[in-house]
Every structure is written in C-alpha cells, then in structure tokens.
Design brief:
CATH topology of the largest domain: TIM Barrel
CATH architecture of the largest domain: Alpha-Beta Barrel
CATH superfamily of the largest domain: Aldolase class I
Number of helices: 14
Distance between the termini: 6 Å
Shape: globular
Strand content: 5-15%
Number of domains: 2
Helix content: 25-40%
Strand order of the largest sheet: 3-11-10-8-7-6-5-4
C-alpha cells in the first residue's frame, strides 16, 4: 500500500512510521538503524544508554553522553545515512547536555515528552535539527505553541500526539489512561490537528503524528484519515530481531496476556503502562530502598521514591525480568511472534 511520505521541513521519511523511543537500552542504534534503513524514522532513547559502561556507576552522565554519541553514529551507518531521531525525556536532569550531544553528533530529529520541553527551540537555535513535542491534550499543545510563538517566533517542526493506549510514561491520569475510549480521544486528535494547522500560514507545513496503540496497517490508515500524516509505534518493534532488548525481554512480550497489562505509578510522578510481573506486585505493597541515585530525573527524591526507576529499567535491559520494570503498550498481548524490521514494515505497508 502506497502512503505519502512524512515530510518534516527538508527531511523526507519515505514510510510515515516513526519507531518510538524506548529506554533503558531497548531502542538503541541497532533498532533505530534498521527502522531508518527500511524508510521509517528510527529513534534512539537517551534514557541511560550508557548503562553497560564500566564507569556508569561512578559517572552516569559522562557514560550516557559518550554512549549516545556512539549510538547516533552507529545508527546512521546502519541506516545508510538516513535520518535518525533521539527521544529525550524533558523530566531528565541534564536535559540541555543531551540536546547538545544530539546536535554535535549528527542526530536529525529530537522528540521530547515526559514534561513540556518549553526551552527546546532555544537549545536548537541555529541548528538544522528538527524537533517535536509529545503532547496528549489540546491544552498542552496550546501552552507550547503559544509560548514558543511569542518567545521565539518559532514553533515545532512536527507534533507527536500520544494517546492513552501508549506504553511507558503517560500524559494522562491513571483513570483516563484506562477508561478513555478511542472514539472520544479521536475527537481530541482532530482538535489538535486543526490547532496545529492554524500555525502553518505563519510557519509552513507542520505534520502531526499519532502514537499510542497503533498496531496494524488499518490503525495507521485510521489516524491518517483523522488528519495525521504519520504514526509512531514502539511495542511492535520490541518483537523484532533487531531490537536492542535481550531475548528474554522479547519473550516476556510474547508471553504477556491482556490481564497482565497494568497502569503503575512511576517515581517520575506520572502513570506508566507495564507488564505486571513480580517486581510490580512487590512495589504495590512495599518500596524498594534506593541504594544509588543517578541524579537522572527531576522531582525524584531517593529517600521517598518507591524504587529507582533507572535500576528497574536497567535490570530489564539486562534480562533480570522478575526484578525489573517492563514498560509496554496496551496491545502487547496481541503480539504472536518475533519478526524482523523488514517483515514488519512489509506487513504494515500491506505488501
């Protein structure tokens, strides 16, 4: 099935599919490079990419910046020079340093959620790097665009709308994440698309991309029909041979049942969607003392947080699954097999 490419300024993504950023260690250069090679936009997660480094425990920031630079370079090589994106959570401490690293080492796109990236246009001033906020409501889109327009005389190059079926950290209350219907949220998607289009006369074309629960080719067409020009998918890319996650992590996705998918409270202060394993069950009744603080997140107090989210995600990336947090999208239970990025693109393209 031939769809229009996703055009972001002077960047053209031949297949309008963005692979969502997944930390820690789930979407790095191998997955991102493979996705971009197939014509989508591969995205590296800037969340603790340096965790395998022997110096990580002593200086996480230094290890992370070094690893991020290396993964951007490697992904560009694997993709044959196609565009590569990086996802940076705004809730991260040292946000500006991660943005600078992306600029200096050749990232083409920055996608930023988990908070409002109000300063991102200034950080990217006089660069060619394209950027998008992740928003879940018209209200958030308005706050950002109105502030950016007034302060910087610039708005985003594109926008990612993340719906309530997404994995990982969510821009909703736990109740809304569980109860919002697709029909109701589709109306919000249309409102956001219309709002963004209102800035195009002044700033040029600003495509909108939908994320959260996109699983099939039909899902893609549904959101294109609502006015979006692409989709972002994450969960399905975990079940590929190229995904940077360990094999045991991928098998946990295959084994997940519908009733295993739950909303958890993250130390970051947001709800998150994950697989209910032994770790999640234990955190429902008692906290896990934090032995080492990586100073990675705003609003995280190691003395009171229910657990260290970095260590919980690092253990997942290391395959220690029952002692780890496994983020996932709502539709993870629908995954039936491990495939390849190439085969997944063929399926999603209707080839």
């Amino acid at each position: 099935m031939k769809r229009n490419p996703l055009v972001i300024g002077d960047l053209t993504i031949p297949v309008p599919i963005i692979q969502g950023g997944m930390g820690v260690g789930i979407s790095l250069s191998r997955l991102a490079g493979a996705v971009s090679k197939e014509g989508g936009l591969g995205v590296i997660s800037a969340a603790q990419p340096g965790y395998p480094d022997v110096h990580f425990m002593k200086n996480a920031l230094e290890a992370n910046l070094k690893a991020l630079a290396e993964h951007i370079k490697k992904a560009k090589e694997l993709s044959g020079g196609a565009p590569i994106g990086v996802n940076i959570m705004r809730a991260s401490n040292h946000y500006a340093e991660y943005v600078r690293c992306c600029v200096e080492h050749g990232a083409d796109v920055i996608i930023s959620g988990a908070g409002l990236p109000v300063e991102l246009p200034q950080l990217l001033k006089d660069t060619k790097v394209k950027f998008a906020p992740i928003v879940s409501s018209l209200k958030a889109a308005k706050v950002l665009f109105q502030r950016w327009d007034k302060r910087y005389q610039k708005v985003a190059d594109f926008v990612v709308i993340e719906g309530p079926k997404a994995g990982g950290h969510l821009g909703f209350t736990a109740e809304d994440a569980q109860n919002l219907t697709q029909e109701a949220y589709d109306q919000e998607v249309v409102r956001i698309v219309e709002f963004v289009k209102g800035y195009e006369e002044k700033y040029g074309h600003i495509p909108v991309v939908f994320a959260g629960g996109v699983f099939t080719s039909e899902d893609i067409d549904h959101y294109l029909a609502l006015g979006c020009e692409g989709v972002q998918m994450a969960t399905r890319f975990v079940a590929t041979e190229e995904c940077d996650a360990p094999e045991s992590y991928k098998q946990a996705y295959l084994a997940a049942k519908k009733e295993d998918v739950v909303i958890v409270k993250s130390p970051v202060g947001m709800p998150g969607r994950a697989i209910r394993n032994q770790f999640v069950k234990e955190r429902e009744v008692e906290r896990e003392p934090v032995e080492k603080c990586f100073d990675c997140m705003d609003h995280c107090n190691p003395a009171t947080t229910p657990y260290c989210i970095s260590m919980a995600l690092i253990r997942a990336a290391r395959g220690q699954l029952e002692h780890a947090l496994l983020f996932c999208g709502e539709n993870v239970w629908r995954i039936q097999e491990i495939t390849t990025v190439k085969q997944l693109f063929a399926e999603l393209n209707g080839d």
